[in-house]
Amino acid sequence: MNSRLQRLEFFTLYDLYLKKNEEFRRAVQQRRDSSELDTLRANLQDIFEKMAEKRGTAGNPNLRRPS
């Protein structure tokens, strides 16, 4: 795949990650239901893993977030 396209996809995912992280932070501050927090946390993890794949670090366990 074109490296320029890969960078674009990565930064698009990164922007989404930042937005979802802010949503999660607000949910924590508002003390929302734990099941909703778990869903938001899982969404963040999915985005992070996709970002890692785009950066080529998905196979390196030292660079992945703990579950």
Set out the fold topology.
Elements: H1 3-29, H2 34-55
Short description:
This protein is an all-alpha fold and 67 residues long. It has helices spanning 3-29, 34-55.
Question: How would you describe what is shown here?
Answer:
The chain is mainly α. The protein has one domain (3-55). The chain is 73% helix and 0% strand. It is built from 2 helices and no strands. It has helices at 3-29, 34-55. The radius of gyration is 14 Å and the shape is elongated. The termini are far apart. The mean pLDDT is 86.
User: What is the number of helical segments per DSSP (H or I, 4+ residues)?
Assistant: 2
Share of residues in helices: over 70%
Structural class: mainly alpha
Q: Report the portion of residues in β strands.
A: under 5%
Number of beta-strand segments: 0
How many structural domains in the coordinates? 1
Oligomer status: single chain
Look at the structure and give the mean pLDDT: 86
Radius of gyration over alpha carbons? 14 Å
Which regions contain 5 or more consecutive residues with pLDDT less than 50? none
What is the N-to-C order of secondary-structure elements (H for helix, E for strand)?
Answer: HH
Sheet having the most strands: none
Shape: elongated
Q: Quote the distance from N terminus to C terminus.
A: 29 Å
Which structural traits does this protein have?
67 residues, mainly alpha, elongated
